[in-house]
Amino acid sequence: MQRVRYDISIWGEMDSYLFKEGSHSHIYEILGAHPLKREKEEGVYFALWAPNAKAVSVIGEFNGFKEGVHPLKLRDDESGVWEGFIPKISTNLSYKYHIITFENRAITKSDPVGFMFGDDERNSNIICDLTLYNWQDKEWMSKRESLNHHKKAINIYEIHLSSWIKKEGKPLNYIELAKKLVKYITKLGYNYIQIVPERYYYNSLDSLEGGYFAPSANLGTPFDFMEFVDILHRYEIGVILEWLPVSLGVNLKEFDGTPIYEYSKSRYQSTKVENLFNYAKAEVREFLISSAMFWFKYYHLDGLKVSSLDYMIYPNQIEKNLESQKVIGRENLDAISFLKQLNDSIYKENRSVMMIAGDSSFPLISRPTYLGGLGFGYKWNTAWARDTLEYIFLKPSQRPKYHHKLIFNFICIYQENYILPLSHKEIIHFQDSFINSVKGGKDIKFATLRLLYSYMIVYPGKKLLFMGNEFGQWTQWKSNSSLDWKLIKIGEHFRLLNLVRNLNFLYKKEPALYLYDYDPKGFEWIDELDYKNSVISFLRLADSTFDAILVVCNFSNKEIKNYKVGVPKNKIYLEIFNSQSKRFGGNYETLGEIKAQKGRVAGRDYFILITLPPLSLLMFKIQK
User: Which of 352, 393, 449, 589 could pair covalently with 145 via S-S, beta carbons 3.0-4.6 A apart?
Assistant: First the structure.
């Protein structure tokens, strides 16, 4: 049995200084398990932050998981880090940490900075060297900053990997998934996927369970996940991961016998967050920021979507200031400060990635920190999703009374850099699939869904749709069940899928639908006040008049003949899209070209006369 060497360390003086200061944004380089060769001797260097532990030892396959055989030594720099080099052990061996607390309790913990998890009952980490993977996505990485710009088309397919498709009741592994996904995603016209946490629990914030530096082992190794991302990049599909720096998992709770990651005197009485990260503590901040940095560096991810911001910023029923937690009114200033530091750190190092905020009532989330914002690049517009779905799920006869739900969010479209999320969270919120939530018979359900997806495409903001909704899955999504793929062979579902595909390619083709999502010059009302007919009309604008798109939406379940729509020019208008087209499952032929007529309508000097199909969205372009 090899003895531990304490004369070998990968820490430098600057590492010690930055770590104690709380500004070390790459702690994965100095903590965790690192295969090394020093003085012609190969082995593994271990380092663990456990400042209040009495003793720490490494247990693993190489010592029969016996405590005390390979003890670590506490560094003498007051960092609270235990370290040691164990010769003649290598990769692919499992390990954990055995900790003796100051109360002389013995506890066993996984490595918070572990790079790989095993699938054994111990929930052990696996020693691995992530630098061994040979990436093939140089072309994508070199140009991705130009692809995720605010003036580009961003269309996201949200996916829960293990429930997307199964084989003989079991989920596919990362590589099998990638090969199927790229064919499906490219055919449908999406250019990003967003991954829902693999360990997904309804109404839970503990989805990561402490795995802040390792992908789920359920679908393969870290190298398999790297290849998953690599394959998608080679097909020009970006990868976004949902990331939860909110409630720490079981492994991190009282990690060394004391609450080093969480607040030590939490007294939230009715809060849903029982173990909130202590955002005031320097080591916790750099742990979380390093985690975000890690996913971008080692897994070439293109974005992180940070969820559950309101739980961080507004922890419920705070009785009083706890430790250094600063609260003014309802706001947790520690969390606000952390989020600003997080985004500044990420964007300072890598401008080509996306930091996406989930829903929150906090203002200026996607504005720069120097302007008082939190510094995110994008923010989910959950208010739009909820209001729109609540409106869509009404009976058509009720919609005139609730017309305000349809148009109110237009007032706020430039407050943030919004993504429009028809996401898994909306399915959970409404407790059913989108198509089942629509009132009416099958024809009305499919027509309404076609209208909904078309409306999302023309509304200012980037796009996101959760898996299964593209073909109208009837059953509510469950994380332990596969999508109902047999439906795509059935007429109505196949035609709905065809509509989604056509919308996605139209979205990428027409600059008016994405160029000025966050600029008032990209949108202009025609008529938002026709509540009696449940009709709205507007223009999406680009740099050229002839790139402008006229949008007319009929949310009523009635055909409206001879409907006058005000137009900006005395030109010919060509219908380029009709959600009630026969090829999408509707009953209408294209309107073709329509000549504008002179006459005052909705404040315009000209108008076109059209027949509006029920539950439809029509798009027109001005012809030269």
Answer: 352
